[in-house]
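Support case: magnesium ion complex. Customer-provided input:
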Amino acid sequence: MKMSRLFLETLRDYPSDAEVISHKLLVRAGYIKKLANGIYNYLPLMWRVLKKIENIVREEMDKAGAQEILMPFLQPKELWEQSGRWEVYGKELLRLKDRHNKEMCLGPTHEEIVTALAGEAIRSYKQLPVNLYQIQSKFRDEIRPRFGLLRGREFIMKDAYSFDKDEEGMQKSYKAMAEAYTKFFKRCGLETKPVQSDSGAIGGNISHEYMVITQTDSGEDDVFYCDNCDYAANSNHAVSVLNETNIEGEWSQYEKISTPDIKTIEELAKFLHINSSVICKCLVYIADKEPVLVLIRGDKIVEETKLMNALEAKEIRTASEAEIKELMESHGFKAKPGFIGPKGFDDIKIIADKTVQDLKNFVMAINENDVHVVGANFGTDVKLPVKICDVRLVEAGEKCPQCGQPLKVTRGIEVGNIFQLGTKYSKAMNSTYTDENGKEVPFVMGCYGIGISRTAAAAVERHHDEYGIKWPISIAPYHVIIVPVNVQDEKQMEIAQNIYNRLNSSGIEVLIDDRDERAGVKFKDADLIGIPLRITVGKTVQDGFVELKIRETGEISKLTPDEAVSFVSKTVQNALNN
Ligand code: ATP
Ligand code: MG
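Agent response - structure generated as follows:
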């Protein structure tokens, strides 16, 4: 491909609306152009990268026994009603009506469609297992589309769905996908960590996310992991063994004490000269419009996804001061919001984190202004809530639940995930097969997603420097760029063209920068767009040499054109065979 013909415009500056490096670089290097918030044009270089990622996915999915299909991305409401998600999915689901006033939605994912399809197309246990996948644009009206391709509204996903006759079959399919995922990401030049995660709105029990570890803000998830064993989990799912700390107050008697103007747990602990671990903290949440009290040890933080699951709620948020006041007033209390406590709220839901159940002689608020009680105990002074769950956010330094070593925390970008769905969808949608005994049985399902466009952006997050992108060879838009320094120089052009032809005919993907620009401009662009190998044809051709630069390491060597051709061929072959 000639640079002079390439539909490409590189920019001098980063776009002003970009926060993370992959977004900045993909726009500046001419890979993507924004159409609307969270919606992008994929330009030729980007599309080549995406197609490469897609093809690696295809190869690994096919090898694992999955079969490619393509489902419509406009979906009828009826199927979503059958699964129960028309109501649950929230505003990310873009709902619309066709000319006959029929309600439809743009596919954010395809469990409904594929479950209905399998129910119609698979009749007997003899046809199982089946794994169907597709690669397609999805639409989700994300509340905060940001970070370019990392969180778009329209984005490309590979989604696969497995159908098995039983739990054991599903486990096998799940394992095959896990192995395919590890190979896939490795081939894309991305190291990933599979971490346990919450199954969220998708449902089911066991699930893993594939995380690209990054210490920057582009990683939207916190991952807790252990260096000593293989434990790793998203913060919404992580558990830990707590370090020993004082959970027994020094007061032997239940008594009221004055705590004037105390507003926070920290202030209270300081005022009483105690560790906040002997305080029973009471928080107010609104879960699906209903107020809920949450008790947790004073030094711990609530993890909201865990809380939402424990409450089986669709939506939760912390209550505002006004809502807390209103709640207290409706129960006859006139205190300020900071003094809310669990006593006297028998008619509303109260949930306790596991950390409070062993507290003794603790401190708590009792809905009176400027007062707390000390020496309180569950059973005698206040009821222990019936519902006790783990709703605590793990903190680094707490002990690994598998081996007891201190956990560490890092940020990660979720590039893929795998879920054991079980019969959640097949039961709800009555999607069945006939088993050995002639009985109609729901499929046992799994689902498996990979963000294709997010994977490309994650690769840029991991592979770049101050000059631009450094694509791994396997997903680079072109393997090599040839830069004739002076296009007016016949000798340079002849040798450049000759190298170009030889590489091209051996299957190497080559760009040649035939633009009549200064060498500096061409070098800058080559670095910015991130082509892994560069062959510069300049004055040294007089002595029979060209220059080869490896983008990844910056290493430069002087080679004959023959040597350069064979080096490039070998390097590319090696990278692709990996
Ligand atoms: P997230 O927690 O990041 O919103 P998700 O749990 O909603 O992801 P899934 O519904 O399981 O994701 O989708 C499968 C994959 O699709 C994800 O692992 C991710 O790589 C990708 N993906 C999800 N949402 C987006 C988005 N808004 N933009 C780009 N890729 C996305
Ligand atoms: Mg999401």
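The first strand starts at residue 32 and ends at 36.

Case will auto-close in a few days if no follow-up is received.
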